[in-house]
Amino acid sequence: MVLIIAFCIEFLQLCNLLEWLNLQNNTLAKLVLGSTFQVTDLLAYTLGILLVLIVEYKQNN
């Protein structure tokens, strides 16, 4: 679920959600939603989730 939320936020950045909502100058909105789309962020989120799954699997076996 965390990965889905992270991907959704990242793709909302790609669609310029802050500009669409006229919040591009709102510091809190920029902090919560971010302001730039980066494919490397998607990769980092995915690798982070995979690491968590690997650690949990090894702890349970």
Topology:
Elements: H1 2-14, H2 17-20, H3 27-33, H4 39-60
Protein described:
The chain has one domain (2-60). The mean pLDDT is 94. It is mainly α. It has four helices and no strands. Helix content is 75%, strand content 0%. It is elongated, with a radius of gyration of 15 Å. The longest helix has 22 residues, at 39-60. Helix 1 (2-14) packs antiparallel against helix 4.
Q: What keywords describe this structure?
A:
mainly alpha
* Domain tally: 1
User: What is the share of helical residues?
Assistant: over 70%
What is the overall silhouette? elongated
| Chain-averaged pLDDT | 94
Biggest sheet statistics? none
Number of strands: 0
Please provide a brief summary of the model:
This protein is an all-alpha fold and 61 residues long. It has one domain (2-60).
